[in-house]
Amino acid sequence: MRASGILMPISSLPSPCGIGAMGAAARQFADFLVAGGQSYWQILPICPTSYGDSPYQSFSAYAGNPYFIDLDDLAAEGLLEGSEYRELDWGDDPEYVDYGLMYQRRYPVLKQAADRLLAAPPAEYQAFCAGSDWLEDYALFMALKDKHGGASWFTWEPDIRLRQAAALAAAREELAEEVSFWKAVQFLFFRQWKALKAYANGKGVRIIGDLPIYVSADSADVWANPDQFQLDENGIPTEVAGCPPDGFSADGQLWGNPLFDWERMKQDGYQWWIKRIAFQFTICDTLRIDHFRGFDAYYAIPYGSDTARDGRWRPGPGWDFFKAVNKALGRQDIIAEDLGFLDESVRELLRKTGYPGMKILEFAFDSRDNGSDYLPHCYSPHCVVYTGTHDNDTILGWMDTAPKKDVSFAKAYLRLSAREGYHWGMMRAAWASPADLAVMQAQDLLGLGSEARMNIPSTLGKNWKWRALPGAFTPALAQRLYRETRVYQRLPKKNAAAKKAAAKKTAQ
Q1: Which residue among the candidates 136, 290, 369, 373 is catalytic per the annotation?
Q2: What is the pLDDT of residues 109-140, one digit of tens each?
Q3: Helix-strand-coil split of the chain, %, nearest 5
Q4: d(CA 393, CA 169)
Q5: Active-site residue among 84, 261, 373, 391?
Q6: CA-atom Rg of the chain in angstroms
Q7: Residue 59 DSSP SS3
Q8: Is 87 a catalytic residue?
Q9: Exposed, middle or buried: residue 280 (CB in 10 Å: 0-12, 13-18, 19+)?
Q10: 435-455: per-residue pLDDT in tens?
Q11: pLDDT tens for each residue of 247-276
Q12: Closest CA to 242 of 396, 375, 56
């Protein structure tokens, strides 16, 4: 069935208090999607960000980002007073997140809410703690990280770093209050997330989640499960993840994530991974798995390298892994991020899984590559088309910065015109394509330039900050989006009543 959706990170919602959150602004965006005839809301990973603010480098593969907890909703529950957060300085620029300010301001406010929650914890809280087997390690990890001034667990004292039982027991006793705080924060996060997902699903909008293939070295996942990774006897990675040099990057990309010990994982049927994927389907409806090619073969770079030049390819788990996932979980709704260097082996693995791959329109016109696989006339229906992802420039930014030869090709092939708007023309081509699902970046829907780009790979300091302004997603924009969605036969079934109700709410 043909469908469409919008890629809008939670952090980019126009919520008050400096960053997007899971409250009124999120519900309003879901209403906008319904009014615009959309079936999907794609997000970036919702886990807590670590240094560099990237959602692909997190302290936990399971935990939720505390910054996304809506403070107004906490106040409505009686867990906060308005005066405790509304008068604080959350930043001067509503279009960008100030992560330094978030770190300073958010946790003291959440501490007040957590204290009130823990003064009389509801049964729901106790059930959450009992049913989240990742929570104990995560909460202790974060408490220890605070005790060590934020330092990586690689630098902690050996008995804690190597998880000796007596040392862990002593730490839990010493840091009991701090551990309880981190547990309470996660309860508050997932209670709000569950409510938001139910709200969107109730209106016919499905959530597309995002699963990074790798986890951060400085994470509770690696600290608590060292046997699942390629580490030495001191818990230090022997090799790390990245991408080789290519026409886009002379030095390649050095991500620095520890690599999985796939042979060890195979011994118990990949239980660590199966548990991780199963958890994701409790918080989303469809799952995009990042860096799919890493399951066929992965690029391994010696630990301590300055660039990715000295890396080498190693075999991944291949079809054996996905057979185990299917056996344990059944057929799941998964999108494979099959971008980057692909060979026939990767393509064959994608065919075996049956997952739809991704097509990026901005790649189709790149003169450094033949681009043919990304031109719409080459698509099969079994794929997901994007004009660009969070790692690409916006359409208008691409039009301004791409080589003139590439832009001219795009204008000719797509029949783009300034009168229609180059962004509308490229989105129209995606909607018109044979792809079963078409997903547009929110920035492109709003007609924004490079200033709204979410991420420039292999750079630090300016990424993951863009936010939509309040009132940006107007009824008029929803109506235009709906018309395009209808023309290209991507409307969800039984949409009319939901559309009218959402349009009315959006206009209010």
Answers
A1: 290
A2: 999 999 999 999 999 999 999 999 999 999 99
A3: 45, 10, 40
A4: 48
A5: 391
A6: 23
A7: coil
A8: no
A9: buried
A10: 999 999 999 999 999 999 999
A11: 667 888 899 999 999 999 999 999 999 999
A12: 56
- How far apart CA 351 and CA 345 sit, in angstroms, is 10
Q: Is 391 a catalytic residue?
A: yes
State yes or no: pLDDT of 199 exceeds 90: yes
155, with CB counted inside 10 A (0-12, 13-18, 19+), is exposed
Catalytic-role residue among 337, 406, 444, 484:
337
Beta bridge partners of 41: 6, 207
The Cα 495–Cα 203 span in angstroms is 9
Q: Is the dihedral of CA 86, 92, 94, 95 positive or negative?
A: negative
* Helix spans in 304-462 (H): 319-329, 344-353, 395-401, 404-414, 422-432, 442-445
Write out 485-496 in H/E/C secondary structure.
HHHCCCCCCCCH
Cα separation values, 299 from 38, 210, 224, 295, 321, Å: 37, 21, 24, 11, 18
Residue 281 has pLDDT above 90, yes or no: yes
End-to-end CA distance of the chain: 32
Type of residue at 165: A
> What number of CA atoms fall less than 13 Å from residue 4's CA on the CB side?
33
Beta bridge partners, 288, equal 210, 335
| 8-state DSSP, 341 | S
Would residue 318 be called left, alpha or beta, if left means φ above 0 and alpha means ψ between -120 and 50 degrees?
left
Q: Given a cut of 90, is residue 298 above it in pLDDT?
A: yes
Determine the Cα–Cα distance for residues 452 and 472; give it in Å rounded to an integer: 13
Cα–Cα distance measured from residue 455 to residue 452, given in angstroms and rounded to the nearest whole number: 9
3-state secondary structure of 122: coil
